[in-house]
Design goal:
The complex is a heterodimer of chains A (222) and B (797). With 222 residues, chain A is α+β, with helices and mostly antiparallel strands. Chain A has three helices and eleven strands. In chain A, strand 7 and strand 8 form a beta hairpin. In chain A, helix 1 packs parallel to helix 3. The two termini of chain A are 21 Å apart. In chain B, the strands form three sheets. In chain B, strands 2, 3, 4, 5, 6 and 7 form a six-stranded antiparallel beta sheet that branches. In chain B, helix 1 runs parallel beside helix 11, helix 15 packs antiparallel against helix 16 and helix 17 crosses helix 29. The chains are: A alpha+beta (222), B alpha+beta (797).
């Protein structure tokens, strides 16, 4: 796929995935007791305060897709690794191994049996804007999110609900719900609901913080 | 005898006359247009078209630095600053916004009109079981990747990735270029350089505009650049500035030197301060000449014609000098009364006719500016002669009378007949050498030869080529049309012609933006293709998609698209999209739909670029004759065309001038030997000019033509005066006058041979060689020819 196809809704999704990653990395230093937040600002402020403490994190990921264009639910499992300020490795192990890497301005996608495909994420102003937002999230400045989403507290549990301000550029997303671990403030589940009823859920567990990452983890798919 | 007007009154009257003429000068529009220097056969439409293509208004800037981040930030800041400046009509420093969802969907709608028979052949090979299966597997994985959610709808509509044909065609447009889009900026592969380009509102061939634009750029560079970055500029801007600066510097220095030299020469030869007034006579005639030329050319004169024309009028000082010397040394009692003798007036009139005659020949030049110069020079010479007759006797009357010894002290041509034979033999040798040299003279019609190319400019252009791989000598094939549709249809024909003739590497928007005719043909092929294949393709595809885990209706948008009836798209609308805007640089005229009619009504221009060397001149001529409305711009083509024209012009004009001059001289002298003697300096000048050009491995250019005409006009006067002086036996004052005239011309014009500017240098060299040869020929060969023949005897008798 050529870089020009990477349009706004794609950036939004990248942003969402980065948001997930970043929200994972932010509450690293949260205290070991349940927290209560009266407003979304308070919650965002809490996670933002933790921002500077983690250089990297990794966790197990289970992605569950319920799409009308698929004959049934599809579950992928794998691992996600995030390194500040701008690196992400999203790796599925089963049922089909594949890797998706964001390294600064580069996107690398590898599928078993096919040559790696590289895309310049910064090949357009929109992409650059998305990247700037990602950086903001990674650095803990979540204020930038308000430009794209209406944010409110989730009705149940500790979490937030994001609703796109401009549905036209949101790739049909109607809502993103992120639930945090009440103690650590790490994201536990992310659910993305689309207009038309399709939805995707990502469950994260088994976090590792500030571990030593192998060289070249964000350079290529191996 | 009536008492003549006092000198001061004559001066006052003449000055009033000049002022009256000068009042009309304000009506004249001075054109700074290079097309005035191009032959008529290179049509003005072509030049206007070049201007419309923006090539003479464009500034290309390369920002270089240690790394991409520093460079891109600097380039972006520079682009932002420049785009705010009113001197620029547009500044491009980054690609437009990426495609949005609607645009991607629109591109899919456009595909049937874009995909051609070659693409269909590729599609045919990608719709077998294996290929479909592989594509669906990729789609499944992409759908489940972090990018999947955003691309879901696109996958549903284009599971086999047909959109790749659009982007492949887009890639074709940058063939040969190393430019990459990175972070939205136009960057080199290593990221250490970014390019931006700007289009100015005013032509950059005008030095005042160029200075203004350079100031704006310098100020922006100062603000925008991060430490470690630098900017190089190519395009007409640095060339115009370099030319203007060198001309200003050289003219200031060399003309000051020339003025001093002329003053010293006049004082040495005349020993009379009043003789310096002679220099003002041509100057006073200039306003009339300018106004007369303006009136004749609809009050529009080329700046170049004006400058050179006024310089040419400067040769009229020769009339003043001859009258002055005659009045002082030979007019006897007439001198004091301010009346010129009839025989002398005959010579002066003959000199005027021959000089003006060569400029009449110049009026037949194919170059508009030359014609204007000719009119200006003729008008100036006429008035200058009249003023000389009115004023100069008055100046001479008040001067100390010279004696025969004064002139004799300077030079004498009292040589023996034997010595004369040697002189004539040597001259004949030069003549033979000259004739041989004329056949070896090379012509250069490249107007870029007049351009100063400093080391900095050469380095910048080489660097640009190295960094961007851009061929600066690309051939431009411009398809014109009264509407965008028409121009695009013609552009398609050009693309087809190039493809049929095996010409590779051409960059044409025809592949992405075909005209209505090609769109219709593509759509028809697309329809036939799928009509034939769909019955077997659809069941196969659906069964394979089910195997890969997709639902039965997952790809119904894809089949709806394939089965639908595609319609041609509007090129206008496509150009307003972000993908279309990438093509806008190849199209001109859309921003001005109502006006600016060029070459019989074509308004829209579509450009195809061909690498230089990929196609021969013959093929280019063929395109032009096969496809009406196509214009071709190539440096080599222009050079060759200019050379042919110039070669013809130089030969025709020199022959014409010689014939005309011979006729005039014959009319007055009615003697073969006198005519031969009078023509000696002209022939010598032309021969030595040719010999000098061949020996110095130089080439004849337009300046040689112009100054050659001037040298011919001056040299013939030397011959006429010398021949008459020898015949009439009053050679001393004529000798002084001829030497003074020649030396002052050499000082005034010849000194320009030391200029750093190619135009001034050519001009100076031509005068140095021409007058440098005609002076000794007039002094030694003319008298010898007179002496050897019977004419001398007749004169003595």
């Amino acid at each position: 796929m050529t870089v020009h196809v990477v349009e706004k809704r794609y950036f939004l999704l990248l942003s969402v995935f980065h948001l997930i990653s970043c929200l994972c990395i932010l509450p690293v230093a949260a205290e070991d007791k349940p927290l209560r937040y009266g407003s979304v600002n308070e919650l965002i402020a809490a996670v933002t305060r933790q921002a500077a403490t983690a250089r990297n994190l990794s966790c197990d990921v289970v992605q569950e897709k319920h799409l009308s264009m698929l004959s049934g639910p599809v579950i992928f499992t794998g691992r996600m690794i995030v390194q500040r300020p701008d690196r992400l490795r999203w790796e599925f192990i089963s049922p089909i191994p594949s890797v998706f890497i964001i390294n600064g301005s580069r996107v690398i996608r590898c599928v078993q049996g096919a040559a790696p495909m590289e895309i310049d994420i910064n090949s357009s102003p929109a992409l650059k804007q998305a990247a700037a937002q990602m950086l903001a999230w990674v650095s803990g400045d979540l204020a930038g999110l308000r430009g794209m989403f209406h944010i409110r507290l989730a009705p149940k549990g500790v979490g937030i609900v994001l609703e796109p301000k401009k549905p036209g550029v949101s790739a049909g997303i109607s809502r993103i719900t992120i639930l945090f671990d009440a103690f650590t403030l790490r994201p536990r589940t992310v659910r993305i609901d689309e207009q038309g009823g399709d939805w995707t859920r990502i469950i994260m567990s088994n976090y590792h913080i500030n571990s030593v990452l192998p060289d070249g983890m964000f350079q290529g798919c191996r | 005898m009536p008492r003549p007007f006092p000198l001061y009154l004559r001066f006052i009257l003449v000055i009033l006359f000049s002022i009256a003429c000068a009042a009309f000068i304000t009506r004249i529009e001075i054109r700074q247009n290079v097309q005035d220097m191009l032959p008529d056969s290179i049509s003005k439409g072509d030049m206007e078209m070049l201007a419309r293509l923006g090539l003479i208004n464009r500034v290309f800037m390369t920002v270089e630095g240690p790394d991409f981040r520093t460079v891109s930030v600097s380039a972006e800041r520079l682009g932002e600053l420049l785009s705010r400046e009113p001197v620029f009509a547009g500044v491009i420093y980054r690609v437009p916004d990426a495609l949005n969802a609607d645009e991607l969907s629109n591109l899919m709608d456009m595909l049937p009109a874009i995909i051609d028979e070659n693409d269909l052949a590729q599609i045919d090979s990608s719709i077998d079981e294996k290929a479909i299966s592989a594509a669906l597997e990729q789609d499944f994985l992409l759908l489940n990747s972090p990018a999947g959610l955003g691309l879901k709808k696109h996958i549903q509509r284009d599971p086999l990735g047909f959109i790749r044909f659009f982007f492949k065609k887009l890639e074709l447009l940058k063939s040969g270029s190393r430019m990459q889009v990175r972070d939205g900026m136009f960057s080199t592969p290593d990221g250490r350089a970014c390019m931006l380009w700007a289009e100015t509102r005013e032509a950059l061939t005008d030095s005042a505009n160029a200075e203004k634009v350079q100031k704006v750029i310098d100020a922006a560079i100062k603000k925008a650049l991060l430490p470690g970055c630098s900017v190089t500029i190519i395009g007409p801007l640095p060339h115009t500035l370099a030319n203007a600066r060198i001309v200003n510097h050289d003219l200031r220095f060399l003309l000051s030197l020339a003025t001093v030299a002329i003053i010293v020469l006049f004082l040495i030869f005349t020993r009379d301060l009043r003789s310096l007034l002679l220099v003002f006579v041509p100057l006073l005639s200039a306003p009339f000449a300018i106004v007369a030329t303006g009136a004749l050319f609809n009050w529009k004169i080329s700046g170049i014609a004006l400058a050179f024309g006024v310089v040419l009028i400067g040769i009229a000082v020769d009339f003043s000098v001859h009258i002055y010397m005659h009045m002082r040394c030979e007019a006897g009692a007439e001198g004091s009364s301010g009346i010129l003798g009839k025989p002398f007036m005959r010579s002066i009139f003959m000199a005027y006719l021959t000089t003006a005659g060569v400029f009449v020949v110049l009026m037949f030049s194919q170059i508009p500016a030359h014609r204007q110069m000719a009119v200006l020079a003729i008008a100036g010479l006429t008035v200058a002669l009249m003023l000389s007759i009115v004023i100069v006797p008055g100046i001479a009357a008040g001067s100390r009378r010279c004696s025969m010894q004064d002139a004799g002290r300077i030079l004498t041509f009292n040589v023996s007949r034997r010595a004369c034979r040697v002189v004539v033999f040597l001259w004949l040798l030069i003549l033979v050498a000259g004739v041989i040299a004329w056949n070896h003279v090379r012509y250069n019609g490249d107007i870029r030869k007049f351009d100063v190319k400093s080391d900095a400019i050469t380095r910048a252009e080489r660097n640009f080529h190295r960094l961007w791989g851009t061929d600066l000598e690309q051939i431009m094939v411009v398809s014109t049309g009264a509407s965008l549709d028409q121009a695009l249809d013609l552009n398609d024909s050009v693309a087809r012609w190039l493809s049929d003739h095996g010409i590779k590497g051409a960059r044409s928007i025809s592949v992405l933006l075909p005209g209505p005719k090609k769109q219709g043909a593509n759509i028809e092929q697309w329809g036939r293709f799928w009509e034939k294949r769909l019955p077997s393709f659809k069941p196969l595809f659906i069964s394979l998609s089910l195997e890969k885990g997709f639902s039965k209706d997952a790809f119904s948008p894809f089949f709806k698209w394939l089965q639908g009836k595609p319609a041609p798209f509007s090129p206008h609308e496509f150009l307003t999209t972000s993908a279309g805007s990438l093509l806008s640089g190849m199209i001109r005229g859309l921003d001005n739909p109502d006006g600016h009619v060029v070459n019989g009504g074509e308004k829209v221009l579509v450009i195809t670029l061909i690498p230089s060397g990929a196609v021969g001149m013959g093929e280019l001529q063929q395109i032009r004759s096969d496809l009406a409305g196509v214009h071709i711009f190539t440096g080599a083509g222009w050079k060759s065309e200019m050379e042919t024209i110039m070669k013809r012009d130089i030969r025709q004009m020199c022959t014409g001038a010689l014939l005309l001059v011979t006729c005039i001289v014959w009319f007055f002298f009615r003697s073969l030997r006198m005519v031969a003697a009078a023509l000696v300096p002209v022939v010598s000048a032309l021969c030595v000019m040719a010999i000098y050009t061949v020996v110095s491995s130089a080439e004849f250019n337009m300046m040689h033509l112009l100054m050659g005409i001037m040298v011919t006009g001056l040299s013939i006067d030397y011959g006429i005066f010398m021949a008459r002086a020898v015949r009439d036996g009053h050679a001393s004052s004529t000798l002084s006058a001829v030497v003074l005239c020649a030396l002052s011309t050499i000082s005034g014009f010849g000194i320009l041979a030391f200029s750093h500017h190619p135009v001034l240098q050519s001009l100076g060299e031509t005068v140095l060689a021409g007058i440098g040869a005609s002076l000794p020929a007039a002094l030694f060969v003319t008298p010898c020819i007179m002496k050897i023949g019977s004419c001398v005897k007749e004169a003595e008798e």
